[in-house]
Amino acid sequence: MAKDRAELPLERYFSIIENIAISGSEMNTSAIAKICDYPVGTTHRLIQNLLETQLLEKSDSGGKNYQLGQRLLRLLHAGSNSVKIAIAVQPILDGLANELNDTCYLARLVGHKVVSVAMAHPIDDVRGHIVPGRTLAPNVAASAKAILAFQSEEIVGKALTGPLEKIASETKTDREEIKREYSIIRERKYATCWNEMENGLGAVAVPIPLPIVGTIYSIGAAGFIDHLKKTSEIKIVEVLNSKVPQLAKALTDIGVNNGSFNSF
Question: Where's the IclR-ED domain (predicted)?
Fold first, then answer.
């Protein structure tokens, strides 16, 4: 005989997640217990398990309020269709490419790999240096480094597992050296790639942090080094950062409106 769904162990966890999501804000233990019709003690135990798995986290406002966790929200973004993301950010990328007069692109973290999602080139230039859908090397690509520098040791360890090939004159293959570069990137808030992916090519990228989710996207500019360096590195970073608020809003909206979120 099939069990009533409410009696299934996982149903209680999903009920808590659903009700916090539906509320659109944070909730405390008593409010969760009341809306889910669970004993307070049971609710407290379930919440602790959800906290340990990062599906919930304590609210930034302090106290004993809880909100959806980073792991859950990242899962929703990972499930977002790449085509929808590209459509949402394309106008911003087009404007950015014309302003910098170089190829501009968006990358995102999927699991422990960074992949390119969308690309734009200047209106008078058909060259594209980053192909959408391509996996970007963690030791090479500026956009990959701009994301991985802000990840946990576990994700970084997985990203750097396996052979790291020297594919250009300045490619780094020593894992400790790469981690030291990540540390510098965290401090200065941008990453570069000069003669690391291919001799003569360069790139500059900045992270796009999202509320709660953290940094799983980056925006970059890439091109021939001689052309790219006609604009100072700091100026490129400034222009890229000027578009981060627009991109963050578009990407946050995609995460919220993602079909997999509708079940909440």
Answer: 71-260
Could you tell me whether strands 65-68 and 201-210 are parallel, antiparallel, or unpaired per DSSP bridges?
A: unpaired
What does the DSSP assignment read for 218-235? EEEEEEEHHHHTTS-HHH
Q: Which residues of the chain have pLDDT under 50?
A: 1-2, 128, 256, 259-264
Q: What is the pLDDT of residue 83?
A: 78
Bridge partners of 118? 106
- Would you state the structure tokens that stand for residue 9, as one six-digit string? 């162990």
Tokens of 177: 């050296």
Q: Which of 92, 81, 102 is nearest to 247 (CA)?
A: 92
Q: How far is 59 from 101, CA to CA, in rounded Å?
A: 42
- 193 plus 144 within the same structural domain: yes
DSSP 8-class letter at 137: P
Our count of domains for the chain comes to: 2
pLDDT at 140: 96
Give residue 226's identity as a one-letter amino acid code: D
Q: Is residue 231 part of a domain?
A: yes
* Strand boundaries in 92-251, DSSP class E: 103-110, 113-120, 135-136, 191-194, 201-210, 214-224
| Domain interval for residue 32 | 5-71
Report the alpha-carbon distance of residue 40 to residue 14 in Å, rounded.
17
At position 254, the amino acid (one-letter code) is I
| Global pTM value | 0.75
Nearest C-alpha neighbor of 245 from the set 204, 194, 211: 211
